[in-house]
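On clarity, I found the account of how folds are encoded harder to follow than it need be. Since the whole study asks how a given chain folds, the encoding of that fold should be made plain. The format is easy to grasp once an entry is in front of the reader. For illustration, here is how one protein appears when written out as sequence plus structure tokens.
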Amino acid sequence: MSKLRRLLRHGHGKEAAVSAPRGYVPVIVGLGADSKRFAIHLTMLGDAKMLELLYVSAEEFGFRNPGILRIPCDADSFERWMHGKNSPPLDLCVAFC
């Protein structure tokens, strides 16, 4: 079992079963019922806007929050922003359930 999957299994409920394609990181974007799950490509972790969102996430949820990474941002806005950054043939963001 991969280290990522072991780490994800420490989450709660549906989050424990989340996996992402190779080279992607699973995240939950939004708060409450309007949250969506995404898989973001590892290259996006170095993007300035993504780093800003990760910093906000760390301030809100802490650095040692168990389970899947949560980003406190409007999910639809996040999805539009990510799809605007796509450069074929690599999708930088994949929505999944």
Q: What stands out?
A: DSSP finds three helices and four strands in the chain. The two ends are 21 Å apart (CA to CA).
